[in-house]
Amino acid sequence: MVLKHAVQVVETLFESFAPMIFKFGFSRDPKIRWENRRYGYLHERDRWERMVVLYLSPEPWSPAMLEAALIDRYDGQPGCRNIRKGGDSVGHDTSAAYVTYMVYRSFKHKPA
């Protein structure tokens, strides 16, 4: 059910915003992953527009597995920016919730 839901969300985003570049990931803190000055998506050269949280879990393994499944499904699709196969940086810290997310930048409309 989790994978099916995530795929439905991703497909809806494609329908609404393609052509686009996109990337899947997982994180303990999506706000920091988005805003951090050193490694946040907000400051990357791809100029990502949005981060959409696809799944939230109290443990890290299922978000990491979902990330890997989504990368496997969309690898090779035009716009996919994932390089690694995903799920490779999972740790054993269960003191916080984890999320699987998608970041994207749409080229459907001209920037304001």
What does this molecule look like?
This protein is an alpha+beta fold and about 110 residues long. It has one domain. The chain contains three helices and three strands, in the order αβαβαβ. Strands 1-3-2 form a three-stranded antiparallel sheet.
Whole-number mean pLDDT: 92
Structural class by helix and strand composition: alpha+beta
Work out the number of β strands. 3
Q: List unreliable stretches of 5+ residues.
A: none
Note the run of SSEs as H and E: HEHEHE
Set down the secondary structure blueprint.
Blueprint: H1 2-17, E1 20-27, H2 30-35, E2 50-57, H3 61-74, E3 98-106
Antiparallel strand pairs: 1-3, 2-3
Essential attributes:
3-stranded antiparallel β-sheet; alpha+beta; 112 residues; 32% helix; single chain; 3 strands
Concise synopsis of the structure shown:
The chain has 112 residues and is an alpha+beta fold. The protein contains three helices and three strands; from the N terminus they run αβαβαβ. The chain has helices at residues 2-17, 30-35, 61-74, and strands at 20-27, 50-57, 98-106.
